[in-house]
Amino acid sequence: MKRPYFFVPLALLALAPGMAAFAEPPAAKLVADKSQIVFVSKQMGVPVEGTFKKFDAQVAFDPKKPEGGSVALRIDTASAGFGIPMSDAELPKAPWFDAAHFPQATFQSSAIKALGDGKFEMTGKLTIKGTAKTVTVPVGIAPAGGNQAVATGSFTIQRLDYKVGDGEWTDTSMVANEVQVRFKLTIAGLGPL
User: Fold this and answer.
1) Domain with 155 in it: what CATH number?
2) Which residue range forms the structural domain that includes residue 97?
């Protein structure tokens, strides 16, 4: 059967001049050695700061049209540490991140909204230990020289919502339920702000 003469593959439409509305936002790349993800919990009332040493992000985001963008973050749960060997050995175990069964925590954006002045609001699913919850994350983006920009922000989660610190560790007088997550992600090729 012959196709009608007006049949045009969608891929060609996206490449046609003046059809930019169909184009994907430009892909940007995480600069891992200039990025960090920190988590702060209170242990017996004292704030203790830890970091994830291994993570990656897929960013397709145009700061001028953020609503069409997406951010996907993958965090290696076995890379969590406080810099204290005894504690660091416990974090990958089953009561905490259970890295053997859940090697990655993830964030996948579902909506990005511009708030003005380089500030954005990202809503998406944060998944830790197989539990997914919707979170809204405030993000500030600033130029960092060259073709790089820095995205920073912080938000708070309840660790027990994700079963982090299970069993005897559900006692919040020892380790508080509230955990603050802070990030500084350096991104190359994001596009003009």
Assistant:
1) 2.40.128.110
2) 25-188
Looking at the structure of the chain, the number of domains it has is 1
Q: What is the pLDDT of residue 3?
A: 40
Q: Which tokens in the block code for residue 15? A: 């490449």
Question: Are residues 27 and 61 in contact, defined by beta-carbon separation less than 8 angstroms?
Answer: no
The verdict on residue 91 lying in a domain is yes
The token duo for 171 is 């006692």
- Quick one: which of 122, 115, 133 has its CA closest to 57? 122
Which amino acid is present at 172?
T
Our CA angle for 73, 77, 81, nearest 5°, is 115
Q: What is the pLDDT of residue 61?
A: 84
Radius of gyration of the chain measured on its C-alpha atoms: 20
In sign, the C-alpha dihedral spanning 12, 17, 21, 24 is: positive
Task: Give percent above pLDDT 70 in the chain.
Answer: 87
Among candidate residues 107, 87, 89, 103, the one with its CA nearest the CA of residue 157: 107
